[in-house]
Design brief:
The structure is a single chain. This protein is an all-alpha fold. It is about 60% helix and about 0% strand. Helix 2 crosses helix 3, helix 2 packs across helix 15 and helix 8 runs parallel beside helix 13. The longest helix is centred in the middle third of the chain and has 20 residues. The chain is globular, with a radius of gyration of 16 Å. The two termini are about 15 Å apart. The model has no long low-confidence stretch (mean pLDDT about 95).
């Protein structure tokens, strides 16, 4: 969960017209900030910690942080009294799911809970698949410590092509906020990484939906490497509000075990 938040904050200044195609960039600058990826990741953690309802928590967090660069369809949904999902296959379902993989201790439960968290908004099959793929990648990262297991499971069960390399993806890749157009790339960014920081640099270097791709890759890398340099952690934490930090601290104290 912490790795996902860090990825979002670092990637917040490297998307759209600011997208880059290199791994050589400053991790933090004064413009770094949390986006909807962080807000909704914390909302998922809050839901799990306090046995709340996903719809209620997502709408409450939107009302608390209304300027966090949400997608148009999520923003409309959050403002309406109706709670009906909107059949999205956007990567919003995948960016927020990492806490589930830390909170539950068997893969079937993780997959079921990932589906529950996704389908309140993203009830398109691709939206659900993206959330389940990321949740299972994070779960397998923390429980197997084996990239070959993660890669084969994702390819076998979700049909994502993880055979491309970042060098093959990077030249022609553009902003894509769909699950099917960003989740595989984020997983590849993790698979090619050598440590947590390298996973974030990989994710941002392809020049796409950088905050979300780095959020997804960062969540998996956090689970796998189990160590984030303290300097990176501290630079990210200052970007959070106190209520966000308190939920993060409570969740990590309860569910996240470090070597």
């Amino acid at each position: 969960m912490l790795g996902a938040i860090i990825g979002d904050i670092i990637g917040s200044v490297y998307e759209g017209f600011s997208a880059i195609k290199t791994k050589d960039f400053p991790l933090f600058c004064e413009r770094c900030h949390f986006t909807d990826d962080t807000v909704l990741t914390i909302a998922v953690a809050d839901t799990i910690l306090h046995n709340r309802d996903y719809v209620e928590r997502f709408k409450w967090y939107y009302s608390r942080y209304p300027k966090a660069a949400y997608g148009k369809r999520f923003k409309s949904w959050a403002l309406l009294p109706s709670s009906q999902p909107y059949y999205s296959f956007g990567n919003g379902s995948a960016m927020r799911v990492s806490p589930i993989a830390f909170a539950f201790n068997d893969l079937e439960t993780v997959l079921n809970e990932a589906k529950r968290s996704a389908e309140v908004t993203h009830n398109h099959p691709e939206g659900i698949k993206g959330a389940q793929a990321v949740a299972s990648a994070v779960f397998l990262a923390r429980t197997t410590q084996d990239k070959t297991v993660i890669k084969s499971y994702i390819q076998r069960n979700f049909g994502y092509n993880l055979e491309e390399t970042l060098d093959e993806i990077r030249p022609n890749y553009h902003f894509n906020s769909s699950c099917q157009g960003s989740v595989p790339q984020a997983i590849i960014a993790f698979l090619e990484s050598t440590d947590f920081e390298d996973a974030i640099r990989n994710a941002i270097s392809i020049g796409g939906d950088s905050d979300t791709i780095a959020c997804i890759a960062g969540g998996i890398a956090d689970a796998f490497y189990r160590k984030i340099p303290n300097k990176i952690v501290q630079q990210a934490l200052v970007c959070l509000s106190e209520p966000q930090y308190l939920i993060l601290e409570e969740f990590m104290s309860k569910f996240v075990k470090r070597d």
